[in-house]
Specification:
Layout lengths: L1 H15 L5 H13 L1 H66 L1 E6 L5 H14 L4 E5 L1 H11 L20 E5 L2 H10 L5 E5 L6 H12 L1
Antiparallel strand pairs: 1-3, 1-4, 2-3
């Protein structure tokens, strides 16, 4: 009987995997009906296989969970990066906008006198004594416009010093608060127009800058 047990036990793996020939299969089945020891071994083999399958299933499940968490974390990181870029971009836009919003251009009449220019400068200094004020003549205005349209010089062909349509102006660099005060307070002889960007949407302003520069 011991000899038969050894043979059957050697065949148990094949029997469990259903790879035995019919004769060997019948031998194992008949033996297991009468041998408790071999039957116990076979039952343990089946139990081990179930445990292994269960462990593999748990491992696969954990892998899936890990992959889901990993994908979720990657998505969170990507969204975080995008939001950070958007926030930094907006900060940059508003920093630049408020820097430019502190600049005022005061366009002057063609027949303005030096005394009137001095009065305008003094009025600006009374509002902000630290304000930087620069005078640009009609010729300076034309040269600036030519520089902006350097790739389309034909648009300005025919405009020279004697028929220059552009006005002289004062460029004032101050704070945003003082820019608004200057815009509302400076209403003196010789002033044609006052311009700054405080009433322009920051995004439209940046967009126009990009379009003009390109």
């Amino acid at each position: 009987m011991k000899k038969e047990c050894e043979i059957v036990q050697d065949l148990l793996f094949g029997y469990k995997d259903e790879t035995l020939h019919m004769a060997s299969k019948e031998l194992v089945e008949n033996h297991l009906k009468t041998c408790e020891e071999c039957k116990k071994i076979f039952n343990n083999m089946q139990k081990d296989e179930l445990d292994n399958n269960k462990q593999e299933g748990e491992i696969d499940y954990l892998k899936k969970v890990k992959n889901k968490i990993s994908k979720k974390n990657k998505l969170i990181i990507i969204i975080g990066i995008i939001l950070t870029i958007i926030i930094l971009l907006n900060i940059g836009i508003f920093i630049y906008y408020y820097k430019e919003a502190g600049k005022v251009e005061i366009y002057l009449d063609d027949n303005i006198t030096q005394e009137q220019i001095d009065n305008i400068k003094n009025s600006i200094s009374n509002i902000d004594e630290k304000a930087k004020i620069e005078y640009y003549s009609k010729e300076d205005s034309l040269n600036q416009m030519k520089e902006k349209f350097k790739d389309n010089q034909n648009l300005l062909s025919g405009y020279e010093s004697e028929n220059n349509p552009l006005p002289a102006f004062l460029a004032v660099d101050t704070t945003v608060e003082n820019a608004r005060k200057i815009e509302t307070a400076i209403s003196l002889p010789g002033v044609k127009k006052i311009q700054n960007i405080l009433d322009i949407n920051p995004y439209l302003f940046i967009f126009s800058k990009v379009v003009i520069n390109n």
